[in-house]
Amino acid sequence: MTAEGWREVAGARSRPWAGTRRVVRRAGSGPWWIALGGLVVLVLLLGAGAADQRADFSQAFLPPSAEHPFGTDQAGRDLLTRSLAGARVSLLVGLVAALVSSVVGVVVGGLAGSLASRGRGVVDGALMRLVDAVNALPHLVLGIVIVALLGPSLGSVILSVALTHWTTTARLVRAELLALQGAGFVEAAVGAGAGRWWVLSRHLLAHVLGRVVLATVLMVPHAIMHESALSFLGLGLPDDQASLGTIIEQSRTAVLAGHWWPAVLPGLLLVALSLAVFALGERLRPASRGRS
Amino acid sequence: MRLRERLHPARSPLTGLVVGRLLLLPVLVAAVTLVMFALAQRTPFDPVLASLGERALTMDGPTLEAMRARVGDTGAVQQWAAWWGNALQGDLGASSSQRAPVATVIAQRLPWTLGLMSAALVLAVLGGVLVGGLAGTRPGSWADRLAGGGLLSLQAAPPFWLGLVAVWVSAVWLGWLPTGGATSPGSGAVRPLDVLSHAVLPVLVLALSQLPWFGLVVRDATRDALAGVPVRAGWARGIATSRLLRQHAVRPALLPLVTVLGVRVPELITGAVLVETVFSWPGVASATVDSALRLDFPLLAALTVLTTVLVVLGNLAADVAYRVVDPRVGQRDG
Question: What value does the mean pLDDT take over residues B185-209?
Fold first, then answer.
């Protein structure tokens, strides 16, 4: 680096960088992120219109064209329609799984955080050990075990994702509750005669909710990845509920035959979908900080 | 982090940490297997059919019912205790999907997975440090923005998709790299060059899928270190840029890298499962998927225990390394 470049860097450093970076990211790349966020809505709306397509084997593996922008798959079905429907399944599974895992996380974290000062923190300690234990397992392997034993279905996929992803939220909620225990408004409520449960539900959980919403949104891309991986391994959703993972799994033999589009294009949609949800979460982040 | 704090390592940090974790390990493994056996009991999973495999097709109904009754009589806890009793004596049972004793299957396949994972990890860390370092020392430049966007997109790309793209580009299109397996069919012997050519794609894809985390962490840490007072003061005193980078950017950036390394072990295993499946790599990770698909319970149970042990040891190694790199850790609050 030249001396001048270096000076520029050093000068730029003198401002609190975290805030600047956030603003730059939000302002400078706004339209791009908004476009990605629009994709989520588009997938949800358009994917609903994709009815079951008839197989037509004379139309199998047509490369992308004006008529079929994503080409056709091994059964001659239009891949764009199929991918949008698959993306919708992926997104819905991701949303539900993230919601369920957040609920579990709030309950566990709320219990641990509010009981931390009671009974020498036995409940808190036990719950946090549970969190450590779940975190000590590779999520995909745990998911594989759960789906294999429960049998592949929408319910077991959602369950396996939710059961492996609640720990982040639990830790977050517990940490927030502990940090808030000495807050002025809590003391005021207690002084006014409010009970433990009242303070917890009306003050503490309300306070944590913003963070939890953000954590839930940021969990969705994880859940989508998890579901698509399970589906890709043949342990996820069946063909009539094909998610993007299922579609990519079905393209494996096609790729070896030199047909790139059944794998590459749905995969790009999956990447865009994850990025879009992630970007939405990042845009929510400053808003979620709230009053604390 | 929290676990380490709770194990109160203030007096003898390292041994306390290691002993605590190693004590936790058997409890964890026992709990995980117990849950597995309990789940297997109340599910469509049929241990009799699973253990018989194709032989079940030639058996008549009453014989099967009798076998079911015999297995069903014992509860999950008894089955679990029996499994552990055998396992501790070295008998892990027989794998129906691989048609071999579980211990043999693991002994044959584990080296392939460990080789794949360690090669990919080394490449991912080197690549991550390179990309992250380049981007972090030039904040706001086009290289920084390119690296940031690229790493985020790569992070969002599922490893199995990267694998398929790699198969298409490199093997089908260019046509000079094998697309699956670890040895050429027909050649019984394991020849180094042959294995190497088979390993290129899986290792590269696994490394690529792990690289973004390392890259992003190094980039942020470098950037923050350069923004810090020591670097600016050093620069004002005329200390050479290269020396400032080496002493004030590289070392602080190493800290989060080491932490991420430990946290990434589960993700590395996840990646290995997907990459091994895409490339038919003969490791334990692809065997996990096989055993799950074919309800090969003995193998699935043994592999779950193995991965749990790997993850706990990986986290432990990272925590120990973290203390070695940064002596302040563990001596603070305690």
Answer: 83
